[in-house]
Amino acid sequence: MRRAELAAHLDVTLLRPGATAEDVRALCEQAMEVGAAAVCVSPSRVPDAVAVLQARDGAAVPVATVCGFPSGAHRTVVKVTEASTAVHEGAGEIDMVIDLGLVKDGAWDAVEADITAVQWELDQHPAVADGARPLVKVILETAALTDEEIVRCCRVAEAAGAAFVKTSTGFHPAGGASVHAVQLMASTVGGRLGIKASGGIADTAQALALIEAGATRLGVSRAAAVLADLTD
């Protein structure tokens, strides 16, 4: 795989709580330079990222943000408001965290309702009428789940209308992305949803292994290191 091809899989990510406007600018510049799939920033930084990309004619790089991050233990109305506000401010992709407690309770109807509410709200956005449906990526936190829970979460996310399932926030002590989890997710969704691997992706070899396992996006905070071993 060439450098540009791998770069096109990357959501270059900056979710550090103390990130500044200058940090966001640098992230957007990097995303445009390498040809990334998206930039992913904290909700309060969405306007900053949108402004930088528009000023640099980088509109082809969408802005992603997070919702219910990082715990997922937010009320659904909060997630809906957070996601809707971000799209209103120019985000095109929302990475929402499921409620892990509901998963562990086996409250699958409630897990699905949480995702469905966010997806429904975004489907009402005026951009949908123009064919630009905001993407919802459902963060499962796979390192904290059993295989059976991962499979069930994928099925619930698909039933709720999400576009992607995603491994991890990168903030959970249980860990981040793994090849096994991505393979399990890929076999469950069968190409009907995208798969985003994130959390702890540190180098080229790891990135390529996750793509080989079935990932269609990679969330990375160290894009330069991930691309370092490839050439154009």
Automatic annotation (TrEMBL):
Pathway: Carbohydrate degradation; 2-deoxy-D-ribose 1-phosphate degradation; D-glyceraldehyde 3-phosphate and acetaldehyde from 2-deoxy-alpha-D-ribose 1-phosphate: step 2/2. It comes from the Bacteria. Keywords: Cytoplasm, Lyase, Schiff base. CDD domains: DeoC. SUPFAM superfamilies: Aldolase. Its EC number is 4.1.2.4. One of its GO terms (cellular component) is cytoplasm. GO terms for molecular function: deoxyribose-phosphate aldolase activity. It catalyses: 2-deoxy-D-ribose 5-phosphate = D-glyceraldehyde 3-phosphate + acetaldehyde. Coiled coil: none annotated. The active site is at D95, K166, K196. It is found in: Cytoplasm. Belongs to the DeoC/FbaB aldolase family. DeoC type 1 subfamily. HAMAP family: DeoC_type1. Catalyzes a reversible aldol reaction between acetaldehyde and D-glyceraldehyde 3-phosphate to generate 2-deoxy-D-ribose 5-phosphate. This is Deoxyribose-phosphate aldolase. The gene is deoC.
